[in-house]
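FORM 12-B: Structure-to-Sequence Request
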């Protein structure tokens, strides 16, 4: 929570839950990444929060961008970035979307299988391709492991296939899992990446880049290591596996760049006890899994929730959203402590909600509008 957000909320007159993002925090975060990983270029993972004000600020600061779709590509271009600052990092793309991105000037694409290489070769001839390798995602609160990436031992074949089809076999990417608590998580992936560099080198293909992905945490309820600790661990791992031939590197922070910049203001709608002697209360908010808090699936992300009464005695609560769907429960397995004095109509602040919220919000499930956002 920043003074600017507090002042904004104090003067707010409209109704309903909203996310307020302080762009000054985004700026500080960008500069912190640039100083913790000084030789690494930042490609903001646009999917975390594509608000035009955020994209414009990052364009001004010199950031590059990781996009997952044609629409995100258009958003980044509209914010003023040139297409050479864009990496199309989603390994799952329609050929027509690759062609559109290429027409817009994008020439850097991620792939993780030979079929995708062939699409890029047809739709974006001569482009650079990065092969995504699998990472097990351990240590991450929001793992991305099984869905993406080839087994590292096949990466050289995929890149060689790209080379034969006239593409530039450019490098390796991986993602160690989002909200990664282990600063050493990059080590094993960099060992695999270095092995692919060697194998490709033996085949006469010289790779240039390692895309270190995202995974840098936002501070939720659990303590997280400092960004400098990630920077140091990554640099040491690069040295260990690449010696004095460290490749060009990029990072793609999403959560770490915007997560702590935003606060959601929501409201208590109902407080119920299911039996009179129950200690646990059910607290229903005017926001839930369907209107921005999707990352509470499996209680993965545990947001800090603050109220005006936090100095009062606390008691365990199940926290749920307002929709008529029983999966719309945020925290139940591990009940959430909230003040026993909490009352219907009280405002609650859901902190560190700048990433992966607005764009997950449904367009109107149960008639509730999408989550509003203000970037200040
Ligand atoms: C989602 C995503 C990111 C951002 O991950 P964070 O953990 O939010 O930093 C980066 N790169 C790729 C390819 C992604 O899919």
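FORM 12-B RESPONSE
SEQUENCE OUT:
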């Amino acid at each position: 929570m920043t003074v600017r957000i507090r002042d904004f909320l104090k003067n707010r007159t409209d109704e309903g839950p909203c996310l307020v993002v302080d762009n000054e925090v985004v700026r500080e975060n960008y500069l912190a990444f640039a100083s913790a990983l000084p030789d690494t270029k930042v490609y903001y993972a646009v999917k975390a929060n594509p608000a035009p004000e955020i994209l414009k600020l990052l364009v001004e600061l010199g950031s590059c961008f990781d996009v997952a779709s044609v629409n995100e590509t258009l958003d980044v271009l509209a914010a003023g970035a040139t297409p050479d600052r864009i990496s199309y990092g989603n390994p799952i793309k329609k050929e027509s979307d690759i062609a559109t991105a290429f027409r817009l000037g994008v020439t850097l694409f991620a792939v993780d299988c030979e079929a995708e290489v062939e699409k890029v070769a047809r739709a974006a001839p001569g482009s650079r391709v990065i092969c995504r390798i699998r990472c097990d995602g351990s240590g991450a609160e929001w793992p991305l492991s099984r869905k993406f990436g080839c087994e590292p031992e096949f990466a050289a074949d995929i890149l060689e296939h790209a080379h034969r089809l006239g593409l530039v076999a450019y490098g390796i990417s991986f993602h160690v899992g989002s909200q990664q608590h282990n600063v050493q998580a990059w080590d094993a992936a960099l060992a695999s990446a270095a092995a692919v560099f060697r194998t490709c080198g033996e085949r006469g293909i010289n790779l240039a880049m390692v895309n270190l992905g995202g995974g840098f945490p936002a501070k939720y309820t659990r303590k997280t290591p400092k960004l400098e600790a990630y920077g140091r661990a990554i640099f040491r791992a690069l040295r260990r596996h690449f010696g004095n031939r460290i490749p060009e590197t990029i990072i793609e922070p999403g959560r770490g760049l915007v997560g702590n910049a935003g606060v959601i203001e929501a409201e208590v709608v109902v407080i119920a006890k299911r039996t009179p002697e129950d200690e646990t209360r059910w607290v229903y908010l005017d926001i839930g899994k369907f209107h921005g808090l999707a990352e509470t699936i499996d209680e993965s992300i545990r947001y800090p929730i603050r109220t005006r009464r936090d100095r009062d005695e606390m008691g365990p609560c199940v926290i749920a959203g307002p929709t008529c769907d029983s999966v719309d429960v945020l925290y139940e397995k591990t009940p959430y402590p909230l003040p026993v004095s909490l009352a219907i109509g009280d405002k609650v602040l859901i902190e560190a909600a700048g990433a992966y919220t607005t764009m997950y919000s449904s367009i109107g499930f149960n008639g509730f509008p999408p989550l509003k956002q203000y970037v200040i």
